[in-house]
Design brief:
The complex is a heterodimer of chains A (116) and B (417). Chain A is α+β, with helices and mostly antiparallel strands and 116 residues long. In chain A, 30% of the residues lie in helices and 14% in strands. In chain B, helix 17 (347-357) packs antiparallel against helix 18 and helix 18 (368-379) runs antiparallel to helix 19 (383-394). Classes of the chains: A alpha+beta (116), B mainly alpha (417).
């Protein structure tokens, strides 16, 4: 029997903003090496990606009478991250429309960086 | 460079900047930062070239073609980008003046992109003024009383978010249009209000009012079937018609009641009234309810039509506020409605409504509530209470003209701050 876990990676965005292409490559290699070690250890990676900075985040709140779209990441502390989807969309409008229909009160929408 | 050339470029900057940028942005698939640079370069080129070769008969077309050529140059230079724009590279010979409806779409695309709900409200205003109106970062910073580097950072961050978050460069679908249009109209209204409020440099402020009017007119032309777009334009016209009477010879604020109604611009009022009639006609034909901008315009129109403060149709204004409150529940509307009730029914009734609003969290920092209470108390002869309310209002205002007005009133009711 096995369980799926989501690994949430936190980092200082100020540090990340200044990385050179070389440092970025080094990080990718380190992640690839880690992924290989995961597989070697008998575990399975179901998905994972780097996220664009939180300045690109948009939050959709559907709890009230009308859905509210705001700039920025979700920052209230009483609610915690409870799940995630990675959905490929045509653009932010489609992503926000889908976030509106998700059975959840608050959804933060953040672009996933294309690491290829 | 002759004065004529400088004037022509300035005039084109005022009327064509947004059009040129919008056309280039479409060519670049919504890359606003590059579109802005290419537009800037085209205007710089105009300053040089028009002096040597004369002012073109269609400055806008010249600027658009020049900016688009700059954009194509950049695209050609960047090999990686060429792969992203196969159609564009193939069709480069077709860079010619566009059909009118394409230009219409371009302008709307730019407006809806700059006012996207995924951007913070202050970011929408900054992008609109920079990208659509062509105001410089310094001008926008001065208008909103923030340091220029702060405004520059805000604009850069906003452009980055548009690109990185994938905010699409297009007019929203029919489904999203009412909500999204409301967002656009709100930005234009905020630009107007920022200009109309009296803080800051007068010249910059007038510029904001004029730009908001320009934008509202463009939207009125581009969306002639949208009652709220016409409603906003009517609201701005009917409010701006009183511009000359709003400040006296020594720069002091004059409230509506004391304004010289002969100084109101009758031509502008007529224009606003025509817009009102057209917009209400659309509402009736569409079997819809008038929206918040149209209702606010109707209230402004009721004031403009009144021969005096006393002879104003106050019961009619109360009814308009009732409808406004139904479509746009808002404490600010409640306060304004209470004031209208005070003149339609009596100051005691108005005061009772204001007292019921007192203490609401969302009104605590707004000087207008204590100022409105103070005014009604003054009319009722309750001078001590009026003085206390004027002092409470003064404590919440930083704007010079507004403070001066409240101090004058405070002195009238017999106290000094």
């Amino acid at each position: 029997m096995s369980t799926k876990y989501m690994f949430l990676i936190y980092s200082d965005e100020a540090d990340m903003a200044g990385v050179t292409p070389e440092q970025w490559d080094q990080m990718l290699q380190a992640h690839n090496a880690w992924a290989a070690s995961v597989v070697a250890g008998g575990a399975t990676i179901h998905g994972g990606d780097a996220l664009a900075p939180s300045a690109t985040a948009t939050t959709v709140r559907t709890g009230g009478a009308t859905p509210v779209v705001t700039d920025g990441p979700f920052a209230e502390t009483k609610e915690a991250l409870g799940g995630f989807y990675v959905v490929e969309c045509a653009d932010l409008d489609q992503a926000l429309a889908l976030a509106h229909t998700l059975p959840a009160n608050t959804v933060e929408v953040r672009p996933v960086i294309d690491t290829n | 460079m002759t004065d004529a050339v400088a004037r022509a470029v300035e005039q084109a900057h005022r009327s064509e900047w947004g059009l040129v940028l919008a056309a280039v942005a479409r060519l670049l698939d919504g890359d606003l930062a590059t579109a802005e640079e290419c537009t800037q370069e085209a205007f710089e080129a105009a300053l040089r070239t028009w002096g040597e070769r004369g002012i073109p008969t269609r400055p806008g077309a010249w600027l658009t073609t020049t900016a688009r050529n700059r954009a194509l140059d950049r695209v050609r230079r960047e090999t990686a980008m060429r792969a992203r724009f196969p159609d564009l590279v193939r069709d480069e010979a077709e860079v010619a003046p566009e059909e009118d409806d394409v230009i219409v779409d371009d302008r709307l695309r730019l407006v809806f992109t700059c006012c996207h709900p995924a951007l913070a409200p202050e970011a929408r205003i900054a992008l609109t003024l920079r990208l659509i109106c062509g105001l410089t970062t310094g001008e926008i910073a001065r208008a909103f009383l923030v340091p220029e580097p702060t405004m520059a950072a805000r604009i850069t961050r906003s452009k980055k978010k548009v690109a990185a978050a994938g905010i699409p460069y297009r007019v929203p679908s029919e489904n999203d249009l009412p909500e999204r249009l409301d967002g656009v109209l709100t930005v234009i209204h905020l630009v107007f209000t920022a200009g109309y409020a009296s803080a800051g440099e007068r010249l910059v402020r007038d510029e904001l009012v004029d730009r908001a009017l320009d934008l509202a007119r463009v939207l009125g032309v581009l969306m002639p079937e949208e009652p709220e777009a016409l409603g906003l334009l009517a609201l701005l016209e009917l409010t701006d018609a009183r511009r000359a009477a709003r400040v006296d010879a020594v720069g002091r604020l004059v409230v509506l009641e004391d304004q010289d109604r002969g100084a109101w611009d009758r031509t502008t009022i007529e224009r606003g009234e025509e817009l009102l009639a057209r917009a209400f006609g659309l509402v009736v034909r569409g079997d819809a309810e008038p929206g918040r901008f149209l209702l606010q315009a109707a209230i402004a129109g009721a004031h403009d039509e009144a021969p005096s403060w006393a002879a104003t149709d106050w019961p009619g204004i109360v009814l308009l506020y009732d409808r406004l409150r139904a479509v746009w529940p808002n404490p600010v509307v409640d306060v304004n409605r209470a004031v209208a009730v005070a003149f339609a029914v009596g100051p005691d009734e108005g005061l009772a409504l204001l007292d019921a609003l007192d203490g609401r969290d969302d009104l605590r920092t707004w000087h207008y509530l204590p100022a409105a209470r103070a005014d009604l108390l003054r009319r009722l002869g309750r001078r001590t209470e009026a003085a206390a309310a004027y002092s409470a209002a003064l404590a919440l205002v930083s704007d010079g003209a507004e403070r001066a007005f409240l101090r004058r009133r405070l002195a009238e009711v017999g106290a000094t701050p």
